[in-house]
Amino acid sequence: MVTLTADVTQGIRKLTQDLVRKGLYKSQSEVVRDAIRQLAFKYGVEVASLEEVRRITKKAVKQNKETLAQATRKIREEAV
Amino acid sequence: MKYVDTSAFVKYYGEEEFEKGANKINELIGKAKTGEVILVSSIFMLGEAISVFDKWIRLKIITEEESQKVISRFLYDIKELSEAGSLILEPVDSILMMFSIEFVMKHHIPINDAIHLYTALTLTPEIEEFICSDEILNKAAKEEGLKVYSP
Predict the structure, then answer these.
(1) Residue B42 clears pLDDT 90, i.e. is over it
(2) What ipTM did this prediction achieve?
(3) Do A69 and B10 lie within an 8 Å CB cutoff?
(4) Least packed by Cβ within 10 Å: which of B50, B93, B96, B115?
(5) Which CATH number do you get for residue B74?
(6) C-alpha to C-alpha distance for B7 and A80, rounded to whole angstroms
(7) Which residues, in sequence order, are bridge partners of residue B129?
């Protein structure tokens, strides 16, 4: 872990304290970490490229011996 | 407006070589991303697609980390399309569930299929095409008068 120092308003400080007080997070640091993770997701940072995802699904489809459409059918049949 | 079911949407994450129709879905979602096409589906699609990807962990085919990558990418695409107004996800409520049960008995299809079918029918005539890669669901959709496209 590294330390990141940031200036925040009293309102933001109170918000992070409230989130911890409500038991949603263990610490204010965890609030900040989660907020940054959500920002990264929002802007697509660190989201895997389609090419990488397709490489993973190709491996899964080959090993599982069923296409994505067939896998969807199985999920539907299993849900019954 | 085109209805897209899970069996068709997941092809976006495949390659034509091992997933027939992947190129067509790639083109369709590309058009949706530029606002040329508006897609609609049931919110149920999220659960179904994630179940497909998550099952691969249970089968020890991919790692947790790989699964996380696939699911995050899927959710990111859904978010992007939804925020752009190019993908409308219809909710599932108790009324829809009751009417879908009728389709289970009428067409002898699983409830997931029936939910997609009923959701699409509630949106006709706005739905110009029912895009689905599942023979069982396509047969029922045709019988209900939907114009079916199977990529």
Answers:
(1) yes
(2) 0.89
(3) yes
(4) B93
(5) 3.40.50.1010
(6) 17
(7) B2
Answer for the pair A72, B134: CB distance below 8 angstroms, yes or no.
yes
CB contact A53 to B (< 8 Å): yes
Tokens linked to B18:
């091992």
pLDDT tens track for B74-96: 999 999 999 999 999 999 999 99
Tell me which residue range forms the domain holding A66: 50-79
Q: Based on the structure, what is the number of domains in chain A? A: 2
Chain A residues whose beta carbon lies within 8 Å of the beta carbon of residue B18: 58, 61-62, 67
| Phi, then psi, of B86 in degrees rounded to 5 | -95, -10
* pLDDT recorded at residue A69: 93
Q: Is the Cβ pair A50, B111 closer than 8 Å? A: no
Which residues 60-79 of A are in CB contact (within 8 Å) with B? 60-64, 67-69, 71-73, 75-77, 79
What is the structure's pLDDT at A80? 63
Contact B110, B86 (CB under 8 A): no
DSSP assignment of A42-75 equals HTTTTPPPHHHHHHHHHHHHHHHTS-HHHHHHHH
Minimal CA–CA distance to B53: which of B36, B41, B39, B68?
B68
Residue A59 forms contact with B (CB below 8 Å): yes
